[in-house]
Design a protein that fits this description.
With 265 residues, the protein is an alpha/beta fold. The protein has one domain (19-258): Rossmann fold (3-Layer(aba) Sandwich). The protein is 30% helix and 23% strand. It contains 8 helices and 10 strands. Strand 2, helix 3 and strand 3 form a beta-alpha-beta unit. The longest helix is centred in the N-terminal third of the chain and has 20 residues, at 41-60. The protein starts with 13 loop residues before the first strand and ends in a 6-residue tail after the last strand.
Length: 265
């Protein structure tokens, strides 16, 4: 008799040597409560917008192999309905706690415990058609240049990259008078004194960085102007207007492009 799928053995979480990134402890402590922090009407609105963008990326890709950097507890996996699709998904995250929550919900998922700037050597023999980092997850690896080089190495020619960063010139940062490249970041609803270092970039800086890695059709998209400023059911309609009038004040900036040539490490 075959074993029912609900009792099938979970895949082991692959573990790689960590980079110098020290953010794992922050995300590990948040893991058990993380999803409860993102149940508001505002969060559901952001999720609906993200789902549309992810579906567009998958539809325009040359193949189904997708790498999700900073996958957390599996938001992109769920928004894309990966379990019932042809997508060949791999998630990576520095936090074993986050990956544990992800695997608790989806024991079938293929995940690797590592930072976004430490994808090699374990993934160097794998190729992907899509590499994503959603909800500013690309801001947390400690070496952005190294992350981009390694993404280029695991992305096939013609593959799509879409990476979400904190916008250096967001409305939130302007109101707080923040101008530095690195900020002390706390996730939504987290009121404790602990934080994680995050890197903030302008659209022009990100476009230049991807062009240097020989990507083509590079462009940026802003999102969540009121993110970190006014997040409520009432602010959703205001956000729809603000995102059309002053998109460059968005909390996040997502840079995307296609790989034009073979990357070199």
């Amino acid at each position: 008799m075959s074993t029912p799928s609900c009792f099938a053995r979970q895949k082991e979480i692959s573990r790689l040597p960590r980079s110098t990134d020290t953010s794992a402890a922050y995300w590990d402590q948040l893991a058990p409560q993380y999803e409860s922090l993102y149940q508001s009407a505002w969060s559901r609105f952001e999720d609906s917008e993200l789902r549309i963008q992810l579906q567009r990326i998958v539809a325009s890709a040359n193949g189904p192999r997708l790498l999700d950097i900073g996958c957390g507890t599996g938001l992109a996996y769920e928004l894309l309905g990966v379990k019932n699709s042809a997508i060949e998904y791999v998630g990576v995250d520095i936090s074993v706690g986050m990956l544990g929550e992800f695997r608790r919900k989806h024991p079938e998922v293929d995940v690797v415990e590592t930072a976004g700037d430490s994808l090699l050597p374990s993934l160097k023999h794998r190729q992907f058609d899509i590499v994503i980092a959603t909800n500013v997850a690309a801001s947390f690896p400690s070496n952005t240049d190294n992350m981009l080089r390694q993404i280029s190495s695991v992305l096939c020619v013609g593959g799509i990259v879409s990476l979400s960063f904190l916008n250096r010139y967001s409305l939130r940062r302007r109101l707080r008078g923040e101008r530095d490249l690195i900020e002390q970041y706390r996730t939504r609803g987290h009121r404790e004194q602990t934080y994680v270092n995050a890197r903030c970039y302008s659209a022009s800086e990100l476009v230049s960085a991807l062009n240097q890695q020989e990507f083509e059709n590079v462009k940026c998209r802003f999102s969540s102007v009121l993110g970190g400023v006014w997040e409520s059911r009432a602010s959703v309609e205001v956000e729809r207007v603000a995102s059309r009038i002053v998109p460059f004040l968005g909390h996040a900036v997502t840079v995307s492009g296609r790989k034009a040539t073979e990357g070199v490490i």
